[in-house]
From TrEMBL:
This is Delta-aminolevulinic acid dehydratase. The lineage of its organism: Bacteria, Bacillati, Actinomycetota, Actinomycetes, Mycobacteriales. Homooctamer. Pathway: Porphyrin-containing compound metabolism; protoporphyrin-IX biosynthesis; coproporphyrinogen-III from 5-aminolevulinate: step 1/4. GO terms for cellular component: cytosol.
Amino acid sequence: MSNPDITTPVRRPRRLRTSQVMRDFVAETHLDPAQFVLPAFIAEGIDAPREISAMPGVYQHTETSLLKAAEEAVAAGVGSIDLFGVPTPEHKDASGSQAWAADGILNKGVAALRREFGDDLIVMADTCLDEFTDHGHCGVLTTDNWGHTVVDNDATLPLYATMAVSQARAGAHVVSPSGMMDGQIRVIRDALDAEGFEDVAILAYSAKYAGAFYGPFREAVGSTLQGDRKTYQQDPRNARESIMEVQLDIEEGADMVMVKPAMPYLDVLRQVADMSTVPVAAYQVSGEYAMITAAAQNGWISREPAILDSLTGIRRAGADIILTYWATEAAQLLA
Ligand code: PBG
């Protein structure tokens, strides 16, 4: 007879973990490459792709190597590419004017992608001035009444509008304002509509935190930033504020909203996913990529399962769309 001191479990959750087929049968969370976005960099003045040292496997691209990377992404089933431009230092100025130049490096890259892939790949453009300003801030600078240099919100807005229109003209399906200026979605929507680009969508970087995980990206874009972005990006200690940012962006016309970074802000992502009436994206940023890559290179973590684990967590927390430097590789792993 059974030992009366030992109680037999009535519920046995392990039953649904007994085989791979069973585990797949009951899985709640699925990763779909169609909802992956590959962030990519096109650099001016290079004649061969240049690997970013803090992001092994990620490159500053030439136009040729960009098209090749995009081709691989499309072949793997990746839905979108989000392009960042890296101008030469001579092409940076106080207002970031190369950001909206038709022959600026970012717009040239956008045009090349759209020409090559048409509607088979969602071409997304980063809509922010930081790569193009000589001071590295996301907006233009001014001096306040106390003599401090500050980023001028309202003077930056028309520049974002001009930049977004230039990106639409170059062929972007989606513009993605990432500068965290108040009111940026409204001015961009109005400007796009006024120029006949009412079908160009806006992915708003709504809840973007001034966190510590952007370091490798700064190298990736040759950032000249001194100091930080704490007067415009959000304080990592606050979650409630993200709800307001998302609400405002939706009211202003955002078609999709984003939480960024992803892994340190999964709680924010869940809250946003629960209240948003538009699709929600999350950006697995450069520092997240670098951490897993470095640990794997040291043999401290198993690379491929860690990549999939990290993406599954982001998806489970509520992201529909995931921006990840592993987009192509993860898509291949899932195939
Ligand atoms: C700025 C921008 C940043 C990233 C995307 N857009 C850097 C920043 O806010 O300092 C970071 C992306 C990453 O770290 O992967 N427009």
